């Protein structure tokens, strides 16, 4: 349903060149839900804007449902819905009038537009708000209006750009249910960008990790987690240096780090090696205040494939191409 080969986008700002997207290949099947995960400035929105015909690629090719991005942009637009980062709904309009106008622009007749908007308002828990001004709605309600605007015409492919940014946890989980329903009810293909690992983990069949304009990892959440070697063991002790030395001696222990009183390391089957380590520390009069083992997360995947944590990357340079 979505196919791209060698997609690139280079921006020229004065004498600087920003290589925002550096050759991306994509194959998304019909009905698949794919997450495009990466830190700020990784190239997610630029890729999305190219795939939705909002931005012309510098090179490469792509098609959506068989319609070529460059030679048939109108065909692409008929097949897609796009929910951008910023709301496109007019804040000074009433909910129903804005949505009906939007449905009419999508080619629905006046009566079909009214019927469709009524159904969507029910479905997206917006019934009763028909005559409220959009500007006076809550963040979660506005986000649901954005989604309704993106899917009113029942497109087979919907692109979401960071759908839940700025929402509280309850609104996020509510929004996720609406995104899941799109596939359940209409077999919609969903392609979404996010920097929330839990969002990608919870919603997506497949995750593409993008960093510096390139796809650096790809797979299901489980496949990606399996690339990270071992569980993360975290200990708080009275003698961190001694604890780190003991951890380093364990067969297969990796990435041993000390941070204050906290010692962390990775090892396969962390639960089974801990008793021996704790006995040794006890024999050496080291007090252990707490112990935790955790299975790899998508954050660990990001760290493994890019060498940086996704959170640290929030402060990554704005111009990775330089
Ligand atoms: N119109 C533009 N002109 C110049 N540079 C741009 C433009 N749009 C994006 N960039 C640069 O391209 C790179 C990729 O930006 P992009 O918005 O695609 O990243 P992103 O992964 O979507 O980030 P975020 O999570 O912050 O939205 C960044 O370095 C950004 O500064």
Automatic annotation (TrEMBL):
GO terms for molecular function: ATP binding; ATP hydrolysis activity. InterPro entries: AAA+_ATPase, ABC_transporter-like_ATP-bd, ABC_transporter-like_CS, ABC_transporter_ATP-binding, DrrA1/2-like_C, P-loop_NTPase. It is found in: Cell membrane. Gene3D superfamilies: P-loop containing nucleotide triphosphate hydrolases. Its main location: membrane. It holds the Pfam family DrrA1-3_C. Residues 2-237 form the ABC transporter domain. Keywords: Antibiotic resistance, ATP-binding, Nucleotide-binding, Transport. This is ABC-2 type transport system ATP-binding protein. The lineage of its organism: Bacteria, Bacillati, Actinomycetota, Actinomycetes, Micromonosporales.
